[in-house]
């Protein structure tokens, strides 16, 4: 029904309600007090209502102060939590970045070592038999160490494969 009424006149802008502020500051207290009762005068019949209104205004003011203090406390706790989380994420990112750079440097070293090994192999054929024997021994030692490393990597890959497809890891 309301939608039909809005569609009848499309040119007219539709009113969009705005969200009211949940926490409003109370009116500022008056700078002077009107109905001042002297110490010698007795309380009249209207004094109770005046007292009640003053008490209500003061209670509203105190409630507002408490609500603002609680909101600030919650905001501060939130900021602390966000900062801690950000620091954790930053440290984790830095750690992973360092690991990536280490892996990159190690790969570069291995590549350079492989190039030097290849160049040593080509130059060893030019040298005498004694040099080629010592280089052959070094090559076999290097191959053995790389085979051990690759064996370690294969074991690690198998473990991660098993872990990723293990029913409990799902």
Automatic annotation (TrEMBL):
<feature type="compositionally biased region" description="Basic and acidic residues">
    <location>
        <begin position="80"/>
        <end position="93"/>
    </location>
</feature>
<feature type="compositionally biased region" description="Basic and acidic residues">
    <location>
        <begin position="140"/>
        <end position="170"/>
    </location>
</feature>
<feature type="compositionally biased region" description="Acidic residues">
    <location>
        <begin position="118"/>
        <end position="139"/>
    </location>
</feature>
<dbReference type="InterPro" id="IPR009548">
    <property type="entry name" value="Prkrip1"/>
</dbReference>
<dbReference type="Pfam" id="PF06658">
    <property type="entry name" value="DUF1168"/>
</dbReference>
<dbReference type="GO" id="GO:0005730">
    <property type="term" value="C:nucleolus"/>
</dbReference>
<protein>
    <submittedName>
        <fullName>Protein CBG16567</fullName>
    </submittedName>
</protein>
<feature type="region of interest" description="Disordered">
    <location>
        <begin position="1"/>
        <end position="24"/>
    </location>
</feature>
<dbReference type="GO" id="GO:0003725">
    <property type="term" value="F:double-stranded RNA binding"/>
</dbReference>
<feature type="compositionally biased region" description="Polar residues">
    <location>
        <begin position="1"/>
        <end position="10"/>
    </location>
</feature>
<dbReference type="GO" id="GO:0019901">
    <property type="term" value="F:protein kinase binding"/>
</dbReference>
<feature type="region of interest" description="Disordered">
    <location>
        <begin position="80"/>
        <end position="170"/>
    </location>
</feature>
<feature type="compositionally biased region" description="Basic residues">
    <location>
        <begin position="94"/>
        <end position="113"/>
    </location>
</feature>
<dbReference type="GO" id="GO:0004860">
    <property type="term" value="F:protein kinase inhibitor activity"/>
</dbReference>
């Amino acid at each position: 029904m309301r939608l039909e009424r809005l569609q009848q006149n499309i040119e007219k802008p539709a009113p969009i309600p705005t969200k009211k502020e949940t926490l409003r500051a109370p009116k500022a207290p008056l700078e002077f007090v009107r109905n001042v009762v002297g110490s010698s005068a007795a309380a009249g019949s209207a004094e109770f209502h005046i007292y009640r209104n003053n008490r209500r205004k003061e209670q509203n003011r105190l409630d507002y102060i408490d609500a603002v203090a609680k909101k600030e406390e919650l905001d501060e706790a939130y900021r602390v939590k966000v900062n801690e989380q950000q620091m954790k994420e930053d440290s984790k990112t830095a750690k992973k970045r360092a690991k990536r750079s280490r892996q990159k440097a190690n790969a570069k070293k291995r590549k350079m070592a492989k190039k030097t090994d290849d160049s040593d192999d080509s130059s060893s054929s030019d040298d005498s038999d004694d040099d080629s024997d010592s280089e052959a021994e070094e090559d076999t030692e290097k191959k053995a160490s790389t085979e051990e490393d690759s064996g370690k990597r294969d074991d690690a890959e198998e473990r991660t494969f098993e872990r990723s497809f293990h029913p409990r890891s799902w």
